[in-house]
Amino acid sequence: MRSRSMPIIRFVREGKDVECKQGENLREVALREGMELYGLKGKLGNCGGCGQCITCFVGIEGESKVGALSPRTEVEEIKLKRRPENWRLACQTIVMSSVIVVTRPQEALLNAKSRLEEARAQKLS
């Protein structure tokens, strides 16, 4: 049974909802829960969460409300300059309330449109 006060992270690619504490780091939650956060480059070498390698980016879909995540950091603004606006570095992102996440957004998501619509249609709480 889930607590109403704890945020839910809906990982679309993995088809899994994960409960976390408010203020937790998105990268840490994803790794703890066994999510495949990194593509090949990130598996071969990542910075361990310092925001330098930019291999832990995720797509944030339909952010449930303003302030669901911490604002982009200065590191993110620099490193994600030419990336889509909804991309974040998981290592720099703090979860404040429930949110929908696509891991490895640079890789094609099978049946992306229908999976995203379904993820948005289901209540997050």
TrEMBL record:
Pfam families found in the cross-reference section: Fer2_4
Output the CDD domains linked to this UniProt entry: fer2
Matching entries from Gene3D superfamilies are given as: 3.10.20.30
All residue ranges annotated as the 2Fe-2S ferredoxin-type domain in the record: 7-107
Q: Which PROSITE patterns match?
A: 2FE2S_FER_2
- Give an example GO molecular function: electron transfer activity
Q: So which domain of life are we looking at?
A: Bacteria
Keywords in UniProt for this one?
A: 2Fe-2S, Iron, Iron-sulfur, Metal-binding
Q: Which cofactor does it need?
A: [2Fe-2S] cluster
**Which Gene Ontology BP terms does the record give?**
P450-containing electron transport chain
Entry's family note: Belongs to the adrenodoxin/putidaredoxin family.
UniProt name for this protein: Possible ferredoxin
Q: Which organism is it from?
A: Prochlorococcus marinus (strain MIT 9303)
